[in-house]
Design brief:
Layout: H1 7-15, H2 28-59, H3 71-85, H4 90-97, H5 101-111, H6 116-125
Helix pairs in contact: 3-4
């Protein structure tokens, strides 16, 4: 809003990110369409942000349906991916993850990950 409604002022305000430009005095009826446009713009920006996060997740190798909002779920997926990469080899997984042996064993138990021995045992019995 400005009491000095010149074209250069309006242009400068828009250049700096203003959604609209109102010159005082204005009627209250003029304000509603401005606010409606602002709400619509915010909704569009939020929708675009969600879309970009989904694209980023897909590019990072996550399926669109597996977007993680939970840190523990993200950790489980990472642990599973590493274990798949190293065919269940605990020593390699520990090195890749950069965690201690004790932490690795707690995570294996917590997330029900299959170790190399379990993978080999299943291969021989199946």
């Amino acid at each position: 809003m400005s009491a000095y409604g010149t074209v250069p002022n309006a242009v400068e305000a828009m250049r700096l990110g203003a959604c609209d430009f109102l010159v005082k005095p204005f009627r209250v009826g003029e304000l509603k369409p401005v606010l409606d446009r602002m709400v619509e713009k915010v909704q569009n920006v939020r929708a675009e942000a969600v879309h970009l996060r989904q694209q980023d997740a897909q590019q990072a190798g996550l399926a669109a349906g597996l977007l993680c909002t939970d840190l523990e779920e993200m950790e489980r997926l990472t642990m599973q991916r590493v274990f798949n990469q190293v065919a269940g080899d605990k020593e390699q997984a520990q090195k890749l993850l950069g965690i201690s042996r004790a932490t690795l064993y707690r995570k294996i138990k917590r997330y029900g990950l299959r170790t190399r021995q379990e993978v080999l045992a299943r291969g021989q019995s199946g």
